[in-house]
Amino acid sequence: MLRRLLRAVALLAYAAVVGAVFILAAYISFSLWVRSGATTVPALRGMTRADAARTLADRGLRLRAGEAGGRYDDEVPVGHVLAQSPFARTPVKRGSGVEVTYSLGPQRIEVPALAGRAVPAAQVTLSGVGLAVGRLVAAFERRRDPGTIVAQHPPPGVTARPQSRVDLLLALPTPGAQFLMPDLVYRRYEEVGPFFDRHGFRLGSVRYERYEGVPAGTVLRQFPLPGHPVTRRDAVSLTIATAAVPDDRGGVFGPPADEPPPAGTTPVPEGAP
Asked: What is the value of pTM for the model shown?
């Protein structure tokens, strides 16, 4: 009885050992088979096309092109791998393809020519190409209309990064030649008026005022005053002595009917604004 019991225990132990060996062998074989058909995707960012293809081939993978034309990037050089799919360290089967996108390098924009344009038009042009208006500086310039662009920095034709600022130099109206206002008081208007006309000066208001002891047509007052700087654009106002006649209200209005005002002037009532 004891012998039979020992024999049965021995058989069970043998069966257990054989089963364990079979299970272990099956597990090892299955693991080796699975591992031999799978791998992880290597990191390819920054590699050239040749280096990326070689690295993938060592893992049993294939290189495939991703986005057509590539993408701009400030860090990765032109022609190097910028992105990949699947990502690095992703488990995949051997023989799978990995898509890569190549870098186009930093994006550059050609600066347009802006000379002769007004600031709003230049701003629209720059915004349309992805640039912006920078500092505005003004200088006197005879060859350009006031407010238009004389020069720019960066100059036209060079390339700049997106949203770079372009500084602009604007034209200011050039100041005209300046003269010292002469003393016209007690001079004859028929001489003063033609003199100003011949030299391109502009006469403003001409008033008439009665002044005892002064002949009609004599300059009594002037503005600007003698010695004041003036340009040809400034208006010169004069007050002329006249022999006046009373109006309906007892005031004085212009020269008498038999003494018309000098040619090219408009009589102004005394005291009128």
From this structure: 0.46
